[in-house]
């Protein structure tokens, strides 16, 4: 009997492969709205409906769909193309950011009945979102509309929907792997089982005999060059300590070999058949032990690698002092000192790392019959990356390729959070593609994200504060040890940044820091939202709260007394960063948000009887952009049909830059966002863009777009003035024309007139990322704790955000809510655990708990009313900063409720109960 299935009312009769799941069966047939997030039924990104019932297609055997009707997000719309009501609701509320999870949410929520809609925490327990914080998703399901309609010339400051919204809700937005490539080969990686070992030999004979295997790559095939997987505008910020494939492995999970085959199954079988002879070496997991004499040296490399003290496993270090902390503590009436620890956290972007490498004919002079130069072939890398331009540069350096021979493109990226400011797949995929001259795909599995990608840096921070009895700070001292893992990608930079704005936000005449970024034989750490600031802010803001208690001063008053004010410089023991300015000041308003929340709060009444209730807050500051320059180029031009085109290099991964760049352009050109198209995250479209990281999407790339749009507006008016013989002062740009003393001259006509004269109406914009401003945030919680179980409930969450001129309130609020939600995960339960041999033991979502709908409160977001003197149109960044004050605010609320200062994150329920029980009984409680 033949196999038969209907997908979106289309019949298919191709039988599934043995053991094939429904997800891959559907994607093989072009239904790319069905996403891969976990392959374990944990995240819901692959949800489809089978006979109207939502199922996770990654664990649903394709053979079970025989004779049944399957609906994917592409088939959810009504006949004639009318959106399903739920799709329209997600558009109206913008119930998404990166949008990778949206199809799964739509397929779940569109099937809910009235009873299920009343209990969304239970109904949505099978769907995860890493970006939104879930409030926007709930609003979408409830039919709440936030998106405003476009209005000519009035784009900035309005809640306009994301340009890709219609594609996101219909499943037609194309993420990294949503492409069909003829002749595509698949790569799988063999990874080390040892935390530290030297490879004596690798036998690939049996692997090469597997049917469908084309190549096995080992360290013998890799270039003998050292580099860093981290991507920065200035490569010297990171130590060169990495090879594409190495004969020494330094963590359990490091890649040892790569198998390229016709199918993923054949590549996996090839990996299983590789025989590796390892010489197991001594290893060290704890960073303090790694710095001790006699510890195994992880990177015995020379100074050319820019490792500070390789013999001591110190990847990078900073030391500095202003004034004398010894004198400052002697002058203090109260001194508080404590050590705080933060854990490894995974970025958990639902789209995993990966890329597709292929070949294409590059730009030439025509070639062929007209006698021009033939176009040369070049490598095209389609990657899930935040940094396409920096990745191209790194690939060219690694393989000695000219820039014009490599093109890097990012489609729509399914989440990043700093994890994709890294080159983890492109280097080895390009090596295979060049060797075989075939297109190659490498896509990480969810477990590989945990043990083969990067994490947030674990920190140990000892903070010491001194203050006079009136609350005046006399001294601040830090000792910071950051565990960078087996490789130093981002290690020195994260350590350096961690002790910058965190300490600089407070006045104190005496400050001192000793900070170390330390190699260990663990999974490498990397860039993560906040870039080190969050870890040190957790320690400092917890300590400030404890200092206030010892002084008998309101914690809010203590901060108000010591924070820097408008026009002041952020001074630290490492000196001022000359280009960093408080170009607008909203910290006072952020603190007032906390004061107002305290004044009108009645949430304690929501606590169950007998539970302990507490409140706490914290604040933070962050630079708008990374130090040392962050480059963005942009081009805006008029098109033949009277619309506009923006070309900008920065990537879109839920950060909302696409929307903001269109709003900036629409405002400058007096038009509507629907008359603007945008090309982005492609090394072909502009000269250079450092990338979408360091909170730079709006304040750097946005400023380049603003300069280009303003310059084009001047060109248009000047050309039209001459063409229409009308004084420049009497002209005005409108949506589709230039008004000349009340007479409209269409943009189509202007384009044609310019073409006849050989004029291209096009302008470029550039910004180098300096000077930089400061953004501020505050967070306040009221929580309740069950003394019998350690369960914690958040009764109220309030956030103050100083984003300067808020370009898009709906979108910016989503960034804040998403940052709070991600920070709550890190505060309450997220942790990448490693065993005594450095092996990751939480390599799945069901073992690594992400915040689900039921875990995240609705956070009240209040924006300061400021306008920045540096940022485009007064805007400041607001993508990383909401994360930073959340953990200490929660810790302070927990201290208020229980009387116990918790110093080690996360605050797991059993940890809280044990501490309360020991405090109650006065004796240790047996563990395990």
Can you give a write-up of this model?
The protein has 25 helices and 31 strands. Helix 2 crosses helix 6. The protein starts with a strand and ends in a 7-residue tail after the last helix. Helix 23 links the parallel strand 30 and strand 31. It is 27% helix and 21% strand.
Number of strands: 31
Q: What's the Cα radius of gyration?
A: 28 Å
Coarse morphology: globular
**Continuous helix count:** 25
Which consecutive residue ranges, at least 5 long each, have pLDDT under 50?
364-371
N-to-C CA distance: 56 Å
Sequence of strands across the biggest β-sheet: 8-10-6-17-14-15-16
Q: Which structural class matches the secondary elements?
A: alpha+beta
Key attributes of the depicted protein:
7-stranded mixed sheet, 27% helix, 5-stranded mixed sheet, single chain, 25 helices, 928 residues
Would you spell out the secondary-structure blueprint of this structure?
Layout: E1 5-7, E2 10-12, H1 22-28, E3 47-50, E4 53-56, E5 69-71, H2 85-93, H3 102-109, H4 114-117, H5 120-123, H6 135-142, H7 165-170, E6 185-191, E7 197-203, H8 205-208, E8 213-217, E9 248-249, E10 255-261, H9 264-272, E11 275-280, H10 287-290, E12 314-322, H11 325-331, E13 334-342, E14 354-361, E15 377-383, H12 388-399, E16 406-409, H13 426-436, E17 440-443, H14 446-451, E18 459-467, E19 473-485, H15 491-498, H16 501-504, E20 511-519, H17 533-551, H18 555-562, H19 587-600, E21 612-623, E22 632-638, E23 644-648, H20 657-669, E24 676-680, H21 697-724, E25 731-733, E26 737-740, E27 743-746, H22 747-756, E28 762-767, E29 774-785, E30 792-802, H23 809-828, E31 859-863, H24 886-898, H25 909-921
Parallel strand pairs: 1-5, 6-17, 15-16, 19-20, 23-24, 30-31
Antiparallel strand pairs: 1-2, 3-4, 3-5, 6-10, 7-9, 7-11, 8-10, 12-20, 13-18, 14-15, 14-17, 18-19, 21-29, 22-23, 22-28, 25-26, 26-27, 29-30
Helix pairs in contact: 2-6, 12-13, 17-24, 20-21, 23-24
